[in-house]
Amino acid sequence: MATFCALDLYKHFDAGLLTRFYNELIIPMFPLEDEREPLSEWMSYFEQQRNGESDLHFHIVLLLCVANRDGENAGRIVSSDNYDVDLETACIAGGCVFEFYSEKMTSLISYIVVNPEYSGRGLAKFMIKYAVDGFYADAQLCRRQQSQCCTSSCATCDVSQMYIPTFFETNKPGVTDGVMKSEERHKVLHSLGCRWIDVSYVQPALSKDSAPCSDLLLLTLKSDRQEINDDGQAVIASSHVLNFISSLWQCICGSQYQSDPVFLAMKEKLTQVSSLPLQDLPWGV
User: Fold this and answer.
1) CB-CB contact of 248 with 108 (8 Å)
2) Torsion angle, alpha carbons of 60, 133, 76, 121, to 10
């Protein structure tokens, strides 16, 4: 039975492995070019982090398959620190791209993909939990740096009770990417804990050669830290949604995003309500 080793490129960057992941899984699973960030952007994010030039915490965790391992770790997901893995030949069973925006304490899981050969083994759930745990670790690190704290038990820096919203994006109903019908993808994401936020959402252009994408839905991960409205429905504060959209647009477009008419239209609508209900299936109808 296979053992899966989790390797976080934020901690252990390897350009060759990142390129393999992009070519072997990201391009086939996300074939719409306008909705796929260029590999060069990911390389740039990692370089900026290494040089201390960005407040963005950009992670990619990969699950590498170590075939036919016997013993207590067979069938489990373990840290790659515990294994000697040949990064050039190891099969990439899945991967998750996620980012934490420290200024506004918000987060995005932008891509999550599982090699079809390894579907049904709980890899997506593991990667989502890994990402969420990573967001809280990033938040605590930021708090400690801001307060110049050197102890791990400082109550001032504790973020364990904080609500850090996690967002996702997915295609609207009727969009076909050649891999999976959007409605089927919605069912998968719903089973993983995602809920739709019924708000007009536009993703900024991901490259100079692409256009803003308006055929996406904005989702968030359901959490017991979200408030419940009078109808018994979980809601998310519109300020959380605006913080995320602002962070994403600033990361991709720079400071000029604040005068972009598309962003301003989203901002205006969000400032008119205090919270937004989280919707079960069907989404986008």
Assistant:
1) yes
2) -70
